[in-house]
Write a structure and sequence with these properties.
By secondary structure, this protein is of the alpha/beta class. The protein has one domain (32-202): Vaccinia Virus protein VP39 (Rossmann fold, 3-Layer(aba) Sandwich). The protein has seven helices and seven strands; from the N terminus they run αααβαββαβαβαββ. A seven-stranded mixed beta sheet has the order 3-2-1-4-5-7-6, with helices on both faces. β4 (113-118), α6 and β5 (150-161) form a beta-alpha-beta unit. The protein binds S-adenosylmethionine.
């Protein structure tokens, strides 16, 4: 299919998508917010006063959700790209895989945190296997970071792609956390290999 035909189809799909329409009505920057909302409703993730880190946060709908729904907490977000300011969120521009930026996040809190959420994904290469491998590596890095930064009863939520890295991620999650579940929210497009891993309580 030609490139302009693909983008035309994408625009038509976006216009029909109820989550896109709802996000516009509710002032969220991306439909992705409804994935986090479903995860929160099902797994009871957030509470007032929590310290929360959002990895791969741009354009910012997950951070908006945190900022709107969690009172008197402390929040930091990171992305390689710039994104518009969100109330109550300490926003960092940088590559999370670089230790300098990991330290910046840790120094901002100065203590362990309650929740790490990661929706990080690499720009698509056009090769679904490669995309799933690269995004799987980001998830593994985020999981190792969570092991160092979470309180004992902390929670880690991350995007994963069903693919060659899936088993490795699940087995690492089982080593680090007492509970781990895989969940595909209704808001995650059916034809996408995306899913989420929800982990609780460090071993
Ligand atoms: C699907 S988007 C996140 C959407 C976001 N959760 C929201 O609700 O608006 C994935 C993001 O991961 C970011 N990302 C990918 N690799 C990253 C890295 N190494 N460090 C920081 N951010 C990264 C991308 O720049 C992109 O903005």
């Amino acid at each position: 299919m030609k490139k302009n035909k693909i983008s035309k189809n994408w625009i038509i799909k976006q216009r029909r998508d109820i989550y896109v329409r709802q996000s516009k009505l509710e002032g969220y920057r991306a439909r992705a917010v409804y994935k986090l909302q479903e995860i929160d409703q099902k797994f009871k993730i957030f509470k007032n006063g929590m310290y929360i880190i959002d990895l791969g946060a741009a354009p910012g709908s997950w951070s908006q959700y945190v900022s709107k729904n969690i009172k008197s907490g402390k929040f930091a977000s990171i992305d390689i790209i710039d994104f518009e300011k969100i109330d109550n969120i300490h926003q960092i521009k940088g590559d999370f895989t670089n230790d300098i930026f990991k330290k910046k996040i840790i120094n901002y809190f100065g203590t362990k945190v309650d929740v790490v959420i990661s929706d990080m994904a690499v720009n698509t290469t056009g090769n679904k296997n490669l995309d799933s491998i690269y995004t799987g590596e980001l998830c593994m890095d985020a999981m190792k970071f969570s092991k160092e930064t979470l309180k004992n009863d902390g929670k880690f939520i991350s995007k994963i792609f069903m693919g060659s890295t899936f088993n490795e991620i699940i087995s690492e999650a089982k080593k680090i956390f007492k509970e781990s579940k895989v969940f595909k929210p209704l808001a995650s497009r059916k034809n996408s290999k995306e899913s989420f891993i929800i982990c609780k309580y460090l071993r």
